[in-house]
Design goal:
Elements (H helix, E strand, L loop, with lengths): L2 E6 L5 E14 L4 E7 L3 E6 L2 E5 L3 H15 L5 E6 L4 H6 L7 E6 L2 H10 L1 H4 L9 E5 L2 H7 L4 E7 L13 H10 E10 L7 H12 L4 E8 L7 E8 L10 H5 L10 H6 L5 H6 L3
Parallel strand pairs: 6-7, 6-9, 7-8, 9-10
Antiparallel strand pairs: 1-2, 2-3, 3-4, 4-5, 10-12, 11-12
This protein binds 1-{4-[(3-aminopropyl)amino]butyl}guanidine.
Length: about 280
């Protein structure tokens, strides 16, 4: 018997993967969580039926949510991840030796527990053994309200703006994040597909611009997300991701990254016309 999982990307289009095994399927108080073994993409985690990560292509998303901000900020020491319970973002942050502490604030403890158990290649740094990593199972909004003016970089590693992540796309939240950043802080948030989510992007970037002086969009190719063309919002109090980018520092990094590199850092901020139009002021 052939088993396939399909995530619908629109009413009439979806991505399908052949599945060999269901490793976990359950429900937390927030959402449905499934971890499947696929033939082509390795293990895959779904939240409410949406693909969050696969072992085969997660390096792209996690390189790109972390390294552009950490190589734009000249000296990031305190980094917060909101969401990101699979641990992939924390793993990449730990490759920056200057980071003193990375804090993970994930609302759903089940996501952390099951990632540690079933997705060790991502969750290796969130199993409680690394003193440079602090874990909080808490609502991101509540957490940053209590932790103002503390972080150099805040990464919003969320799911789509439905379910528990809705509040993470609103102006009030961006204002709280602004307050939780130091005076030269940077926020990066995953910002959906320019191809499928023009309306979400329009609102999201309008909300960001109401709060931050520097707001730019950058792109990455992520085969398992809707359309494969994905984006991130770079919102900053001071540093510009292209003008203030120290190319040499990125080129001299002492770790391997399979997607990110110093040329790509700059190229990622160059957008096709339709994507620019989604977020035009
Ligand atoms: N964040 C999920 C991005 C949204 C994917 N959307 C979708 N498949 N419809 C991933 C978290 C990885 N740390």
């Amino acid at each position: 018997m052939d088993l396939w999982y399909t995530e619908k990307h629109s009413e009439n289009v979806g991505i399908s993967m052949k599945v060999s095994e269901t490793l976990f399927s359950g429900k937390s108080e927030y959402q449905k969580l499934d971890i499947l073994e696929t033939l082509e993409y390795g293990r895959m985690m779904l939240l409410d039926g949406l693909v969050m990560v696969t072992e085969r292509d997660e390096f792209i998303y996690h390189d790109m949510i972390v390294h552009p901000a950490l190589f734009t900020h000249p000296d990031p020491k305190q980094v917060l991840v909101i969401g990101g319970g699979d641990g992939g973002s924390i793993r990449e942050i730990m490759k920056h030796p200057g980071v003193e502490l990375a804090t993970l604030c994930e609302i759903d403890g089940l996501v952390i527990d099951k990632s540690v158990e079933l997705l060790p290649s991502m969750a290796s740094e969130i199993d409680g053994s690394n003193p440079r990593v602090k874990l909080h199972v808490d609502d991101g909004l509540a957490y940053i309200r209590e932790h103002q003016n503390q972080f150099d970089v805040i990464l919003v590693d969320s799911t789509d703006p439905i379910g528990p992540a809705v509040g993470l796309f609103e102006e009030d939240f961006y204002r709280l994040v602004f307050g939780a950043l130091k005076t030269d802080g940077i926020m990066v948030a995953q910002s959906e597909s320019p191809f499928y989510h023009a309306e979400i992007q329009k609102n999201m970037y309008r909300n960001l611009r109401a709060v931050y002086p520097v707001v730019e969009m950058y792109q990455a190719f992520i085969p398992t997300y809707p359309s494969g063309f994905w984006s991130f919002a770079f919102a900053s109090k001071k540093y510009h991701p292209v003008k203030d980018f120290n190319r040499q520092r990125a080129a001299d990094r002492d770790f391997y990254s399979k997607y990110y590199n110093a040329d790509l850092h700059l190229g990622a901020f160059m957008l096709p016309t339709f994507a620019k139009e989604n977020i035009a002021e």
